[in-house]
Amino acid sequence: MTYYKTLMATTAAVAALAATAAGAQDKKTLAIVVKGLDNPFFEQINLGCQEWMANNADSEYECLYTGPASSADEAGEVQIVDDLLTSGVAAIAISPSNAPAMANRVRSIAPDVPVMTVDADFLEQDRDIRATYLGTDNYLMGVMMAQEAAKLKPEGGTVCLQLGNVAADNINARAQGFRDTAAGASGVDRLTGQGGWTEIDGCPVFTNDQADLANQQMSDVFTANPDLDAFILIGGWAQFAPQAYAQVTDQVMDKLQSKELIIIAGDTLPPQTKAFRDGRSHAQVGQRPFEMGLRAPDVMIQLINGETVEDPLFTGLDVCNQDDPGFCANN
User: What is the distance between the alpha carbons of residues 121 and 101, in angstroms, rounded to a whole number?
Assistant: First the structure.
């Protein structure tokens, strides 16, 4: 019931935008469309968008944050972007869940307003349809996760990677960065002993950005593979449901404490930094979603004004590990 209420609310918001954009609207709309409103990572982008609004109350522009109710609704995200572009927005920033599908739709619409990506990019062959990408250097994020794993397991070991949507460019880039760094080679499709690391059968697993599924997958992998050396959350999905994540990691807490099993996770939202402090992960490599939401409207305005904008625009990373808790110590 909650899903459908949220979906109806999202649809209503887009419909309201269509009505006002066609009529007399005082402010021009800068839209940020994310993969799903159910993901707390994206709520940080929303907070950045709202902060921009508070800081620019006299601007002729407004920041609109929207997306499908569920992160699993790839088609819903494409439809929202379609509605926004056809109803009239000043510019749009998209975090595509299914990068090829989103790019195909944007290309078919051929909008005359600036299009950029935020958080997740289009595939390389489709980047001609957007002006710039604002967000994480995702390949580097994967590199840094592999470096943290190597500090704890210098000889390598068995590993399971947990990914998001199959067609998410940002997640796949992180996985590539991890594999290449772990293997000490480029273009590695799967770890089969390179650098001492071997991906176990049944992995990677794909969460479709769902926290409940992510935790179930972790539990299943731990049960089926009692000798697993490393579990890598390429994104923070399981940790977004802290109670479930605590129950799953309780299964292997003795192994985590002894570092027989290590967990490296992406992102540093408050539930995740607490999990780190509680010993439920050994390292966190965090993005800066608030900064993405805060900067995106200014970048869109630059594009509207015909200014030259760098591509890509990286927002940086924060690393927490047991030697240097850093960002995770007090957040």
Answer: 12
Helix (H, G, I), strand (E, B) or coil at 39: coil
Contact (CB, 8 A) for 92 and 115: yes
Query: Please, which residues bridge with residue 262 across strands?
Result: 230
> What is the rounded distance in angstroms from the CA atom of residue 299 to the CA atom of residue 51?
15
Pairing of strands 283-286, 91-94: unpaired
Name the pLDDT band for 2 (thresholds 50, 70, 90): very low
Q: In the predicted model, what is the mean pLDDT of the chain?
A: 93
Quickly state the pLDDT bin for 26 (edges 50, 70, 90): confident
Res 327: pLDDT: 87
First to last CA, the chain: 33
- CB count in 10 Å sphere of residue 226: 10
Q: The pTM is what?
A: 0.91
The amino acid at 260: E
Question: What pLDDT score was predicted for residue 25?
Answer: 59
Give the pairing of strands 313-314 and 230-233: unpaired
CB 240 within 8 A of CB 262: no
Check the CA dihedral 93-97-100-104 and report its sign: negative
CA angle 178, 219, 242 (to 5 degrees): 85
DSSP E strands, 76-168: 91-94, 115-118, 133-135, 157-163
Strands 283-286 and 318-321: antiparallel
Which of residues 327 and 42 earns the better pLDDT score?
42
